[in-house]
Amino acid sequence: MKLMFASDIHGALPACQQVLDIFAASDAQWLIILGDVLNHGPRNALPEGYAPAQVAEQLNAVASRVIAVRGNCDSEVDQMLLSFPITAPWQQVLLPEQRLFLTHGHLYHPEKLPPLGHSDVLVFGHTHIPVAEQRGDIFLFNPGSVSIPKGGYPASYGMLDGEQMRVHNLENHDVIAQVCITP
Q1: What is the pTM assigned to this prediction?
Q2: What is the pLDDT of residues 116-148, one digit of tens each?
Q3: Which three-class secondary structure state does DSSP give residue 131?
Q4: Cα 70 to Cα 63: distance, rounded to the nearest angstrom
Q5: Is-contact 149 156, C-beta < 8 A?
Q6: Count of C-beta atoms within a 10 Å radius of residue 52
C-alpha cells in the first residue's frame, strides 16, 4: 500500500496545489490530511497564498481519495466547505500486521499516546516538525507542514511505500527523515 500524508495546509493555495500535483503523480491510494486544513490559526502568520475557499475547491476534487482528521484550527465552518469529513479527532488505517493511528497531534502526541500495540504507528502533525522514528515498540511519524514549516525545516509531506515511511521536502522531494516500520 502506498499512502501520502500532508499536514497543516492552513489555507495556503500554492502549498495545496503542490501537494495535489505530487499526489496525482504518485501511485498513492489515499491522501491522508492530518488537520489544520483551511484556517491559519491565531498563532500563525498568514501563509503565502492564503485562500481557504480555493483550497477547499482543490481538495474537494479528490474528496473520494482523502482520509482526514480534525486539527486544532479546523471548525464546523471549515467542514461546510469540504466534501470529505474532517471532524473526527482520529482515524485508523489497518495494515496487514499493524495499524496507523492518525491524529492531528494536539490531543494525542508522543508525550500523550493513545493505546497502541506492538509496531503500531502514531501519525500526527501539529508541531510542523518532521519526525520518522521508532520509540520502543512503536513508531512515530510526522510529515511536518506543507505551508508553515518550523524548526528550520523546509515545507514537507510524507509517504508510506511498503514498509518505508519517509518525509520529503515539498520543493525538491529530498528525503528529510525516514523509518522502516517492519513489525
Answers
A1: 0.97
A2: 999 999 999 999 999 999 999 999 999 999 999
A3: strand
A4: 15
A5: yes
A6: 20
- Cα separation, 73 vs 146, in Å, equals 15
The one-letter code for the residue type at 99 is: R
Residue 177 has phi, psi (to 5 degrees) of -155, 150
What grid cell was written down for 5? 500524508
- CA 121 from chain center: how many Å? 13
Cell (9 digits) for 81:
466547505
Q: Give the Cα separation of 182 and 167 in Å (integer).
A: 17
- In order of start, what are the domains of the chain with their CATH numbers? 2-180 (3.60.21.10)
39-61 pLDDT, tens digit each: 988 888 889 999 999 999 999 99
Sign of the CA dihedral with 22 first, then 23, 24, and 29 last: positive
For 151, the 3-state DSSP assignment is: coil
**Residue 168 burial by CB count (10 A; 0-12/13-18/19+): exposed, middle or buried?**
buried
- The rounded distance, in Å, linking the Cα atoms of 158 and 146 is 10
Q: What single-letter DSSP state applies at residue 65?
A: G
Residue that has been written with the C-alpha cell 495499524 in this structure? 99
User: Which pLDDT value is given to residue 42?
Assistant: 83
The owner of cell 528525503 is 175
Cα–Cα dist 9/5, whole Å: 11
